[in-house]
Design goal:
This protein is about 75% helix and about 0% strand. By secondary structure, the protein is mostly helical. It has one domain (about 1-410): Sodium/glucose cotransporter (Up-down Bundle). The protein is globular, with a radius of gyration of 22 Å.
């Protein structure tokens, strides 16, 4: 069995007897057409910006929960997390534990502020506390880094589609971008959230089917997998090593994960937009906390899949060119026909879900934080038209960034997290200055933000693990911003 697995790993891309058949292609096509038509069902409901960007603030908490999970789960997660576990172990779960703590912090510190007023974006809170200038700066930083991170995520789609369908990577990116744009353009946030619900069910079910299939392909089943993985240290979850330079220790994971998720879910429009679409603050809190439990279980599932793939192949990940290719390669080469089509559709579901979320959040911030500032008298119908044009604009930008990302990178999940981390510290530091202090002013917060962002750019060029970046950037932003504000007040 191991010889067969090794041969698959080495020769998959040149093999003519492996790959998808007509049934698989039919399943994938049915999914792509079906989800696009489902999203288009919401196009007639978008008569105002409140409906287009916040779904009328009438989404039940459980749907927001699944939408947050879908927005937090991209193709990066589904293909790269198994690759990470294949090369290492389960210690990434320590970061996800920090994700749970961060959600509690958001529920008590930031969400009450967001529900004090009729807010459309996270950065309106900054204007209310500091002024227009800082709102533009924080929103601009969000647009810049979210687009860059999403470009890497869209690029990850091309890895899967190119392996599965044999299309070029640029063509693969174009197919997913266009189909996702269609229903996001027409249906707004309501289409995004309800397609997220369907897509979450698809990719979780597909992953469970994949796990079951691997389990039955390894002789001895789970008993053999567990014995081999345990002896190789693949089942290690906790690492209490007091080493600052390791990215996945308990300390870096929980502390770094807490700061990362507080920033990503508390200051990033991608998630805040969903929280604002809830019927009440209480329902928003329920959605946020329950999504944390779901994410923990989901990451555990993807990591276990990676460990099981290691037990099946037992070859270095270099045999697959990149660790991110291991799971897609297994799906195409070893899964029964029909199931392999379902799994490819599941991965595409996660990709389209994340892309639609990015397009809608980038569009909402562009319109609400910038365009309407210069054109405040625009009538409602004109605002909807501008919002849809902004959606098209960002689809083109993300397509271009994904094509640029085709250059050789490491594990794409870590690249995506690193790009996001560069901005999150500065953003979280500014938000905490506004919420936790009364003496901080706009000038001090801007200077603090500049220092925090500069430090995080510097950290990218060092060997400091990405898990610490947000914490360091937050502390620098907060301390410098508060100190400058106090000094300015004394001079006055």
């Amino acid at each position: 069995m191991q010889r067969t697995a090794a041969r698959d790993a080495k020769n998959i891309f040149n093999s003519s007897d492996m790959g998808l058949d007509r049934l698989d292609f039919a399943i994938i096509a049915l999914y792509l057409v079906g989800i696009t038509l489902f999203g288009l069902r919401f196009r007639k409901r978008q008569r105002s910006l409140r409906e287009y960007f916040l779904a009328g603030r009438d989404i039940p908490w459980w749907a927001i929960t699944l939408s947050i999970v879908a927005a937090e789960t991209s193709t990066l997660t589904i293909i790269s997390i198994p690759g990470l576990a294949y090369d290492t172990n389960l210690t990434f779960l320590q970061v996800v534990m920090g994700y749970l703590v961060g959600r509690v912090v958001i529920s008590f510190v930031l969400l009450p502020q967001y529900f004090r007023g009729d807010l459309y974006t996270a950065y309106e809170l900054i204007e209310r506390r500091f002024g227009r200038g800082l709102r533009s700066l924080t929103a601009g930083l969000f647009l810049l880094t979210r687009a860059a991170a999403e470009g890497v995520r869209v690029y990850a789609v091309s890895i899967v589609v190119a392996i599965a369908l044999g299309t070029g990577q640029v063509t693969s990116i174009a197919i997913i971008t266009v189909l996702t744009l269609i229903y996001t353009f027409e249906g707004g946030l309501a289409a995004v959230i309800w397609t997220d619900v369907v897509q979450t069910a698809i990719y979780v079910s597909g992953t469970l089917v994949g796990l079951w299939t691997i389990l039955h392909l390894v002789p001895g089943g789970w008993t053999a997998i567990h014995a081999a993985a345990a002896s190789a240290g693949k089942l290690q979850v906790f690492d209490f090593t007091p080493n600052f330079w390791l990215p996945y220790t308990f300390w870096a994971g929980v502390i770094g994960g807490t700061f990362f998720i507080t920033a990503s879910h508390g200051t990033d429009q991608l998630i805040v937009q969903r929280l604002l679409a809830a019927r009440s603050q209480k329902q928003s809190v329920m959605a946020l906390l329950s999504s944390g439990i779901a994410i923990l279980l989901q990451f555990a599932l993807f990591l276990i899949v990676g460990v099981m793939l290691w037990a099946y192949y037992r070859v270095p990940s270099a045999n697959f060119v990149k660790p991110d290719r291991i799971y897609p390669t297994f799906i195409v080469s070893r899964m029964p026909h029909g199931i392999s089509g379902l799994l490819i559709a599941a991965i595409l579901a996660a990709a389209m879900s994340n892309l639609s979320a990015a397009l809608n959040s980038l569009s909402s911030s562009t319109i609400m934080d910038f365009v309407l500032h210069f054109r405040p008298q625009t009538e409602e119908r004109g605002r909807i038209r501008l919002s849809r044009l902004a959606t098209i604009f960002w689809a083109i930008v993300l397509f271009g960034l994904a094509v640029l990302a085709l250059q050789k990178v490491g594990r794409v999940v870590e690249v995506g997290l690193q790009i996001a981390s560069v901005a999150y510290g500065a953003l979280l530091g500014v938000f905490l200055l506004g919420v936790l202090t009364k003496r901080a002013n706009q000038r001090g917060a801007m200077i603090g933000m500049l220092f925090g962002f500069s430090i995080e750019l510097y950290l990218w060029r060092t060997h400091v693990p990405w898990t610490w970046w947000v914490m360091i950037g937050t502390m620098v932003t907060f301390v410098v911003g508060y100190a400058v504000s106090c000094l300015a007040a004394r001079r006055v």
